[in-house]
Amino acid sequence: MQSSSEIAPCWRAANAPPVLAQQGIHLWRVALVAENETVARLACLLDVEEQDHAARLRTAELRRRFIVRRARLRQILALYAAESPDALRFDRGPLGKPRLAGSQGNDRIEFSASHSVDWALVAIAAGRPVGVDIEQVRPIDDMLGLARQYFAPAENETLANLPARERLEVFFRLWVCKEAVLKALGMGISAGLDQVVVSPSDSPPRIVAMAQGHDPAAWRLELLRAAPGFPAAVAWQGQDAERGGGKSLEQFEFPADRV
Ligand SMILES: CC(C)(COP(=O)(O)OP(=O)(O)OC[C@H]1O[C@@H](n2cnc3c(N)ncnc32)[C@H](O)[C@@H]1OP(=O)(O)O)[C@@H](O)C(=O)NCCC(=O)NCCS
Fold this sequence. Notes:
The chain has seven helices and twelve strands. The protein has about 260 residues and is of the alpha+beta class.
């Protein structure tokens, strides 16, 4: 899983609401840095539960990140749902994955959200599961020990055989790939990151094995650099996954000045 396996980052400004094709995946990048005045205006888009949650957070920085990412999630979903951002309601799937309440059928809007430090990503799909994860590459004590605990043998072998300077980066690339798939399945990581095995050497990365009888061949995984030092992955299910090609994934930048 060398750097050549990442999609070249290409975040397009979306001035008009983009049209989501049936097989398409839209990935939005959101900057969580914002002026106090912008944060205050975005807070008005949150529901009571979200506002209570924000109020309970310990620091102004945590509050700002939470408010901006939840407000941006609402603004992005509103582009597809023909609703105003503050009118959107959410429920959860059987394993805890947030869903847009009332969105059903083949055209239902599926989404996945992830954040790390001052970046967030939101992936959108029509009628099929999608998952996204972003992580900041940061030092980890006993990284190989952690990997042995959570990763599959083939993934650990790859890590152990890498030059030490490359290990941390590849560890996080594996992590985001596995978590993106688990988030698409709606499981989160509580069942264990070893529920998904990723081929570390293919480009794009390949899912080798999946929990719960899912067929890896029916899934697609893309690894990208969301920002310098922030690897990210998107996983989705669909027919194009079997063909392994095509331009299903489009990347957009949410305007940082939008309120
Ligand atoms: C939930 C979990 C996937 C988040 O991962 P993370 O790397 O800490 O954080 P990320 O920013 O990447 O993802 C967070 C988002 O994942 C989504 N999410 C939550 N539960 C999810 C699930 N079961 N499946 C898919 N996505 C989920 C939410 O949109 C969440 O955003 P929010 O924090 O604004 O609600 C991970 O912590 C986990 O699996 N935890 C164990 C289960 C758990 O605590 N669930 C709590 C919700 S009931």
